[in-house]
Amino acid sequence: GGNVGTAAWFVAWKILKCNIVVLIGINHGWTEFTPWEKIMSHGNSSSNINMNKDDPNFEKYFPTVYNPDFDCKCILDPVFQYYSNALKEFIARSPESVTTINATEGGSIFGPRINSIKFDRFLKKNNFNETPN
């Protein structure tokens, strides 16, 4: 998958044998309010992509996608497109016994075999909000 988030997902189910993997802080996308300069450079000020927003290929390389699970939009750059597609393919090919939950509350990680829930709701639902005595 080419990134630490995808590697962590793999380690969770394959090595640690977790049958439920919850994703937090991994969205593989930019919010629709992120400045274009940051998106175009993938957050690296010394690495600007020289592409005009009017270029016919712009939407292909920087698509805006709607995440129906969290009712939000995100923008993908070429790097995030690769990361997102790779992780979703790995999830689709993982054993049926592995459940992937996106609790990041946004981004491009949604679709088949990905359950989405807000993180606080996940914690409450699974009794992680109780303080031990």
Walk me through the topology:
Layout (H helix, E strand, L loop, with lengths): L3 H12 L4 E4 L6 E2 L4 H5 L17 H4 L2 E4 L4 E4 L2 H16 L5 E4 L11 E3 L2 H7 L8
Parallel strand pairs: 1-5, 5-6
Antiparallel strand pairs: 2-4, 3-4
Keywords:
133 residues, alpha/beta, three-stranded parallel beta sheet, three-stranded antiparallel beta sheet
Characterization of the model:
This protein has 133 residues and is of the alpha/beta class. Helices cover 33% and strands 16% of the residues. Strands 1-5-6 form a three-stranded parallel beta sheet, covered by helices on one side. A hairpin with a 4-residue loop joins strand 3 and strand 4. The longest helix has 16 residues. The model has no long low-confidence stretch (mean pLDDT 89).
Give a summary of the structure in a few sentences.
With 133 residues, the chain is α/β, with parallel strands linked by helices. The chain is built from five helices and six strands.
